[in-house]
Amino acid sequence: MERPNQMSGDDAFGEAETVPGPAQDQRQDKDGRDAHEAAEEVVLEPLADYPHIDLRTGGEPWDKRRAAGKRLREAVPHEAHAALDLPSDRPDPVDLIVGAHEGRQPRLVPLRVARMASSPFAFLRGAAHVMAWDLAHGPRSDINVVMNGDAHISNFGLFGTPQGDVVLDLNDFDEVTIGPWEWDLKRLVASIEVAAREDAVPAEARRQAVMAAVGGYQHTMLDLAPQGSLDVWQQATRADRLDVSGVRIDEASQAVVRKAVEKARKKNNQSLLARVGERRVDGGWRFREDAPILTGVDDETREAVITGLEHYAETLPRERRFMLSRYHVVDVAHRVVGVGSVGTRAYVALLCGNSDQDVLFLQVKEAVRPAHAPYLPGMPEPYASHEGERVIYGQRLLQGVGDPLLGWTTIEDRPFYVRQMKNMKGEIPVSCMTGQPLLYFSWAYGALLARAHARTGDAAAIAGYCGKDRHADLREALADWAHAYGDQNAADYEAFLAAIASGRLEAADDPCL
């Protein structure tokens, strides 16, 4: 992983790094407010829905907001993030997981349990509610963003753009909400630590990977801080041009990307039809049953889903609604997906257009309350009142290039969101992340996360809080935290397995289904 020679962020800004000591912490401005309160007022709010746009009043310049971020570091210094100091009243992690099963389909909960039990990393993926509690009881920078809420390394992936390019970005937004930027970054570094442990990566190499992720975030935020909002919003990372935020991709990582892109390009509506569809007696198409992953639905559910899709169309821009009107639904099935989402209601609809080879698959997925909801104010209205709209709005805000068919609906009084099932979607396999690729993709995912946060958060304030990217104190602190959380996740995983062994939790026989 090579970085080009360049001045560090602060040097490029022409400003020396000065972090006031304790005697300066009590400084007050001319109105009598302490410096911390004054700094908070300068930082931009991440709320991305303004009922009225004021184009007459200017905001605070980026360098002033960056200085405000530096002042916030006085109250919560980097080293405060190093320790995992969990309260003595921390809930039983198994209880938190059981609580997350409320409202899910009972017949599928044992499958979710089995998938989580397959490895410590799978457990971490499914235990978002556990980590949400832990993060909520730790230090906060007081700089909020529209956060992904579940930014582990398997929630970055490949997908196709309307122009046929394949891009790399965040790709799962079920937990999206407004909250501290560092919670997403901590979720990412914890997942790197846990996944690397499974691959028997030595401790020092794991630490370097975690520090690379934080470095990618820190460097990118420093780079974005002075840029115009339009410039930030127009950035996207094409998979065939994967030099991310000042780091050139190495040959080994490029080989991983090339293979993943080739596989992703083969994942389209036609290839999915060949895999999951079969001909009816009358010559039409229907889904091929593959229980418990892909199962048929009764007529009442089928009609409810189709009605829901008709209402979903109203959430699309007019020109895309016109395009969708050229299709009709020929079949609906229930499809189990992921680890954390197992048990929620998730349908897939097969639509045909000009011919039975002109097909479109839409995923219709139930949206549930995000894991961080008990600890944060949440999204503004109207997104807070419809979980499906929250997910889609968050995805549109955070992704550099989005699915043109994103929308939401309500089916049988439950909120759902809708997206394309296969638009060249792919993944960078975690199993390939060893050696140099582990360092590269850790850096890249940290950089992509920073870019997502900069779209709605205050990049200048976050850059000020993070400090110079040549200084390692933030990287060292989060590396300590990630190692500690890896130990905690291992202990929670053992408690989870013990709950299965004792009969407290029921696990399906085959977690790979």
From TrEMBL:
Question: What Pfam families is this protein classified in?
Answer: DUF2252
Q: Which InterPro entries match?
A: DUF2252
Ranges annotated as biased composition (Basic and acidic residues): 26-39
Q: Where is this region: Disordered?
A: 1-40
Q: What is this protein called?
A: DUF2252 domain-containing protein
- Organism, scientific name: Methylobacterium cerastii
Q: What is the lineage of its organism?
A: Bacteria, Pseudomonadati, Pseudomonadota, Alphaproteobacteria, Hyphomicrobiales
